[in-house]
Write a structure and sequence with these properties.
Keywords: Transferase. Pathway: Carotenoid biosynthesis; phytoene biosynthesis. This protein is mainly α. It is 71% helix and 0% strand. α8 crosses α9 and α9 runs parallel beside α14. The longest helix is centred in the last third of the chain and has 28 residues. The radius of gyration is 20 Å and the shape is globular.
Length: 325
């Protein structure tokens, strides 16, 4: 059968996952397309998972992307009230789908199927939507503690949603704090990289107390964005934010060894590539108010190749263990 919106790789993944319903296959293919189009690092890492697990990751990403698009895009002319209404409608469709009711929206259908198949706690999706609603009203955070409360729903729960799909070699609750920390580390990395783009959306995610500790503030960021001029206070604040983010990566690191061996290459590659975004921002002179830094394509290819090698080793080890059993 042909899956609209997907090629041979999509079909291979869906077949491996045992997804045979035509409507579901289209729903998962749509989610995969969103991942491929918008989540470059995330999608590259996902390719290192066993094919049977990839559709679930695409579904989780696709739903998160759909909610994010409602908050940030939605045609570019929607009012805050219209975006809030669209987000409420999405949550209503999600609740219906999680309760077993049929829904038409592809990303919601794929997400509900994944949540049921991997027994993902529904509250994790609701907490995510709470933070998405905050983005419609909150434009800055006074303290890092306030930002961490926001990131519970916007980032930590993403790591917790992923954990049942990835699998663990320890009791899941032992790995959960590290999975949550990794989600937070990834989002903090985005905040350091995307200062200018966030300003254009009317938001400052770097906490005001962190900025103030280096003599910076929202108005200074806006001035720098508007004029294209640099300021040492902003440079100092961004370097401090990157150091804080590195600390969160260290919180997350012990969780890598707790994952199912066949999932480790995927997460390790994302861990390395996202961490190197901070290196890219530093190399660019901490100029993320003005430009979006990226890991060079050649370096991404090197990390991906190393991941492929680890995948082969993990599968060989799994085959040996199966043979010994």
């Amino acid at each position: 059968m042909r899956v609209r919106g997907g090629g041979p790789m999509t079909v291979r993944e869906l077949d491996a996952a045992g997804i045979t319903d035509p409507a579901l296959r289209v729903a998962y293919a749509r989610s995969r397309l969103l991942n491929a189009r918008h989540g470059r690092t995330y999608f590259l890492a996902t390719r290192l998972l066993p094919p049977a697990r990839r559709p679930a990751v695409h579904a989780l990403y696709g739903f998160a992307r759909r909610a994010d698009d409602i908050v940030d895009d939605l045609g570019g002319t929607a009012t805050t009230g219209e975006r809030a209404a669209a987000l409420r409608a999405l949550e209503e469709r999600l609740d219906a789908a999680l309760a077993g009711a049929p829904v038409r929206e592809p990303v919601v259908r794929a997400l509900a199927h994944t949540a049921a198949g991997y027994a993902i706690e529904p509250s994790l999706f609701r907490d995510f939507l709470v933070s998405m609603r905050a983005d419609l009203e909150v434009t800055e955070y006074a303290t890092y503690d306030e930002l961490r409360a926001y990131m519970h729903g916007s980032a930590a729960v993403i790591g917790l949603q992923m954990l049942p799909v990835l699998g663990t070699v320890v009791p899941r609750e032992e790995a959960e704090p590290h999975a949550a920390a990794l989600g937070v580390a990834f989002q903090l990395t985005n905040f350091v990289r995307d200062v200018g783009e966030d300003l254009d959306r009317g938001r400052v995610y770097l906490p005001a107390d962190l900025l103030a500790a280096h003599g910076a503030h929202r108005e200074l960021l806006l001035w720098s964005r508007r004029t294209g001029r640099r300021d040492r206070r902003i440079v100092s604040a961004l370097a401090a934010a990157a150091a804080l983010t590195r600390d969160v990566y260290r919180e997350a690191a012990p969780g890598l060894a707790m994952l199912d061996p066949v999932s480790r290459p995927c997460v390790r590659s994302a861990f390395v590539l996202y961490g190197e975004i901070l290196d890219a921002v530093r190399r660019d002179g901490w100029s993320s108010v003005h430009r979006r830094s990226a890991v060079p394509r050649r370096r991404r290819a090197v990390v991906a190749a190393a991941g492929v090698t680890r995948v082969a080793a993990a599968r060989f080890g799994a085959a040996l263990r199966k043979g010994a059993a």
